[in-house]
Amino acid sequence: MTNNLRTFRLVCSEKDIPAVEELLRSQGFEFSPEPFYSMARRLEKEPFPLGDSLASRFGRIYIQDRSSMLPPLMLNPPAGAKVLDMCASPGSKTGILSRLVGHDGFVLASEPSKDRLALLRQNLRRVQAINSATVSYESQKLPLPANGWKYILLDPPCSGWGTINKNPKAMELWSGEKTVPLVALQRQLLAKAFELLAPGGNVVYSTCTTNVQENEEQTRFAVEELGFELVKLPHPSGFTIADPLLPEMDGVLRVDGSGGGQGFYVCGLRKPGNGEPEHPETAPLPGQLLDLKKLEYPEAIDFSALPDGEIYDFKGKAMFLNRHALNMLPPDIRWQGYPLGKISGKKFRPNPFARALLPENPAKSALVIENAEDLAKLFSGQSLPAPAKGKGPVGLYFKQLLLGFTGKKGSRFIWTEK
């Protein structure tokens, strides 16, 4: 086993795993399952860049280091839970959280950097994390009420010493006194997490560094100075876990990168007590609430497939606003819901990749593709024959796998991302 091991995860339901794997194998990719997560795969043959595969382009896989998958899996929020991801970009962990909490759950992802926020939103769109919303604040200053969340993921900026296989200069760039500001920021973020967490709630703190100052010493700070309780985490199958570098750290995970993947540190923390999250009064939103009964849209769309929430028109962009966000977020916080498509007058046109709007059972007008070659042709700009009647966009499926919406011109199906 080498440190150059590449991993990815499937982005689908359990029942759709065979279809996603068939799509990958049809293009020559070979892989094997990882033991720690049913959706994780180890790449064994890559005939061309995995990111250019059809499965990746349609957001049905996500390339991610295996160690990076551990923090959300260790937080393990139940279906229907509300989770705060304090330092979310690029969204790798946010995407897993979105899947874990499911259709009726909610994830709020925070990222202060405008460039990184754009990447976060792009990746959440790719994996169709329809149950998410984003904010752009320094997370140590998040304007959220105290005691509002039962589950928080905190993966703060760190020195990245565990990533030296990909970033050989990480230890040189972040050595000695250079880590002092990082350590200070991590402590501010931990203190904020304690404030935002409801009594009895859980935080997973993680870093991709092997630096004890950013790992075990921060855990000790969280317990002795902030009042957290240390939670013993289970040993994930398939990982080499090294002994902690400080005593009384039973249950923290110091992931040894020699077993494949990055070096990582993960610890579980609990806020003492028991209590229900507290939520503020909400306020009207600046956009225009859409009345779906008065909206013109393609017959392929199934709005009932969305979670509970509302669709608003924000300057021509149709945004889905999750009910949890509407009920939980204070009136003075700026946040963005999930983009579904565009509004022009009373007409709605879905984003081509907005598979969250598709029904599980294809409409009669849908394009259901049975072999990957035809899908590759369509995606490359070639057209496929279509019935003369009807117009697009129509639902696009690979067998039973939901992909998005494709255009239709006359008697030809065409792919367009406009």
Automatic annotation (TrEMBL):
GO terms for molecular function: RNA binding; RNA methyltransferase activity. This is 16S rRNA (Cytosine1407-C5)-methyltransferase. S-adenosyl-L-methionine binds at E111, D155. GO terms for biological process: RNA methylation. Keywords: Methyltransferase, RNA-binding, S-adenosyl-L-methionine, Transferase. Residues 1-272 form the SAM-dependent MTase RsmB/NOP-type domain. The keyword Methyltransferase applies. The keyword RNA-binding applies. PROSITE patterns: SAM_MT_RSMB_NOP (PS51686). The active site is at C208 (nucleophile). Belongs to the class I-like SAM-binding methyltransferase superfamily. RsmB/NOP family. It holds the Pfam family Methyltr_RsmB-F. It comes from Desulfovibrio gilichinskyi. InterPro entries: MeTrfase_RsmB-F_NOP2_cat (IPR049560), MeTrfase_RsmB-F_NOP2_dom (IPR001678), RCMT (IPR023267), SAM-dependent_MTases_sf (IPR029063).
